[in-house]
Amino acid sequence: MTLDPTLSEWLNLIFRWVHVFAGIMWVGTTYYFTWLDARLTEEEKAVANTGNAAQIWMVHSGGFYVVEKRKVPDLVSRTLHWFRWEAGTTWLSGFALLVLVYYIGGGALVDTDVYDISVGAAIAVGVGTLVGGWVIYDLMMLSPLRKNEQAFAAIAYVMIVGVTYGLTRVFSGRAAYIHIGAMLGTIMAANVWMRILPAQKKMIAAINEGRKPDDALSAQAKLCSKQNTFMAVPVVFIMISNHFPGATYGDRYNWAVLSILILLGWIAAKFIRRA
User: How large is the average pLDDT for residues 222-237?
Assistant: First the structure.
């Protein structure tokens, strides 16, 4: 299947525009709330014995803003604002780009010098990587391993390196990089829609029924959101890597380059989270 070159270019431009801008909103919101949570945690410790609520005061544009964190909100008289479509739009536009650039025609997906595979089989491997990545990640999150973040990160990193090496032996270098980014992006979006939002809805339902929200749900949502901040940095790198083929996917050891940069991205995220 092929598309008219002009139509393909316009679709590529539109999807990429939407994808980048939605990603900016999603990552920006994620890191903003991470910053808020860290500052409010500090404030909670400072006012622990005063009986006062922890607050953060900020100045931006033409006004001053105050944010207060509550375990139980006043849902009757307040409008509760959700942040979800940034993630959904980013993933949908990204998958549309994946189909447009790599799956239609398969020219950018398959490199016979790397591995002689049919386009259909390569697409199956690509989609399987996205689905399988989320399933394995989610099973790890449901296991006792989630209670040990260092062990979780170490095992996850080894698995990512293995998938990276495998994909660079099946796809073109550029396609392998993009599929690693798409796999991480799929995990991030699934975290929002399948773990964070359902947990928040259950917490709200408990409040409306006069019950105390389950602290385990809050902890689960917070951990998923935290892990998204770590995955976001290497995902953004992968998004721009196609502009630098000589240093990234075009290198003889492209799998090692990406593996090292993913690790550096995680380290950078640790410092960014503290900023």
Answer: 94
